[in-house]
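Contributing new records

If you add data, match the layout below exactly. Sequence lines come first and carry their own label; structure lines follow with theirs. Keep one chain per record. Anything else will be rejected by the validation script.
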Amino acid sequence: MSALLELDAIDAHYGVSQVLFGLSLTINAGEIVTLMGRNGMGKTTTVRAITGLTPPMRGRIIFHGQRIETRTPDAIARAGIALVPEGRQIFPNLSVRENLVAFAANRRAASVAWSFDRVLALFPRLSERLGNLGAQLSGGEQQMLAIGRALMTNPQLLIIDEATEGLAPMVREEIWRCLGELRVSGLALLVIDKHVHRLAKLAQRHYILEGGKIAWSGSSAQLAADTDVRQHYLGVSQRS
């Protein structure tokens, strides 16, 4: 597999407070990677650095062979990186249909593009809510809409920050099912979530952050075998 995204020695700050310290990671084309760690370890800041919302103070971010660390968020989105942010941030006063159609784009002329109908096939519940405003949806439906909206841009890399945060168990299962379908589709994903056992089943590789640095990285098999790593950095031993 070839590198799709590479972060090389990234430092990121909020004002005078440094949050990321020389962080490096790689996501290959078609690969699913997770970013894990306790709260406050730098996961969301890493996402913000990638998407241009918190530009790094030092280091390089290379996407599809091009440096993007100095680009604006809209330019990074047009380059092929889509974000499902923590908190979903859908448009509350637009309908489900309008939220989806507003983001429709196929800039790279993908032969099998994410269209309105394909998104509804992935999330059948949204087809029953097309006329509902974003504010009228449940939390799970809003997350489905946020993922569908990002897919409508036909990205090469989809980043999902807190994929199942605050969702009921049945709805979480629906989100995991959909992420599994995205894996089969060959879309590269960077997923942040607290449910370690589900992430281990979904992804090929994992990074764990501690204090704004990569404390551990490895495969799902390595993560499953290393109880000490799970306990020390994530506070879990078997299931989470």
